[in-house]
Amino acid sequence: MNEGKQLSSNEHKNIKAYYLLIPTVAFEFIFFIVPLVIVFIYSFSQTDPFGRIRFEFTLSNYFRVFTPEFTRTMFRTFSLATISTILCLIVGYPLAYYIGYKEKKYQSLLLMLVIIPFWLSFVTRTYSMISIFSSNGILNQVLAFFGLIKDRPQWLYNWYSVVAGMIYNYLPMAVLPIYASVEKLDKAYLEAAQSLGANKFVTFLKVTLPLTLPGVVAGSILVFIPSVGEFLIPELLGGVDWYMMGNYLWMTFLTIGNYPFGAALSIVLIVIVLLFIAIYSKYFAKEVELGF
């Protein structure tokens, strides 16, 4: 009898827990699922000569996405996003590792220094890069002061200025998940490896890195996804020659007003990103499993 009452009480608690999910599910459905379905439907429609949308089924928008102009832009987008993600991991992992091994009283201060740039708006942070890379910017002034350059080159409107902007803006997204993995790492594993004769490099390669791969995977995804959809950084730091898909989407929707083609571009970009993440996560899931 008591067991039946206990089961009934547990079921009642579970039902209450499901009720708490209703606002989140409703929000996701209204502001994510419904707009995504609308975009998907728009991608198969077309516009008349006056720019009005006609809901007549066509695949012409998708055929246009795979023309050389847009395939080059797609390749450029994923190349710059991949380079930015890799460099964020290269810079962010040692920083997260250092913070994770510091005393607790210093960790909060160091994490705050990592997060401080997020206190400024994204636009302000990106504009600050212009003051560094412009011909009269801080970088040229420092190089000229030490006699490393004679003329003042223009560092803006290149692929590396775009990558530098994305690293600066998205580096904390790589550092924080890796720090969480390092901070939770059981130091007993490291002591065991060293007691068995492994040096520091082997211990890091065979123990620390595999055990912190979940943070690496999470950090790389958090950097890669916004980098693929970026449009402000290429606009301000890269110029027309280094436009990414986000810039073409912005122009297609807001400047040209071709919603069907913009919707097709969006769907293709989403599908490719999901494929990248699925393949990447599957590969690293094996690495994480081997590491444990």
Question: How many separate structural domains?
Answer: 1
By DSSP (H or I, 4+ residues per run), the number of helices equals 12
Mean pLDDT: 85
Q: Helicity range of the residues? A: over 70%
Rg: 24 Å
Question: pLDDT under 50 segments (min length 5)?
Answer: none
Largest sheet: 2 strands, antiparallel
Q: Class, according to the CATH hierarchy? A: Mainly Alpha
CATH H-level name... which superfamily? MetI-like
SSE run: HEEHHHHHHHHHHH
Description:
With 292 residues, the chain is an all-alpha fold. The protein has one domain (68-291): MetI-like fold (Orthogonal Bundle), CATH 1.10.3720. 78% of the residues lie in helices and 1% in strands. It contains 12 helices and 2 strands. A two-stranded antiparallel ribbon has the order 1-2. Strand 1 (46-47) and strand 2 (53-54) form a beta hairpin. The mean pLDDT is 85.
Quick tags:
mainly alpha; MetI-like fold; 12 helices; globular
Please summarize what this structure is:
This protein has 292 residues and is mainly alpha-helical. It has helices spanning 2-42, 60-65, 68-100, 104-115, 122-133, 138-145, 159-184, 187-195, 200-228, 232-238, 245-256, 259-291, and strands at 46-47, 53-54.
Question: Can you lay out the helices and strands and say which pair or pack?
Answer:
Blueprint: H1 2-42, E1 46-47, E2 53-54, H2 60-65, H3 68-100, H4 104-115, H5 122-133, H6 138-145, H7 159-184, H8 187-195, H9 200-228, H10 232-238, H11 245-256, H12 259-291
Helix pairs in contact: 1-12, 3-7, 3-9, 5-7, 5-10, 7-9, 7-10, 8-9, 9-12, 11-12
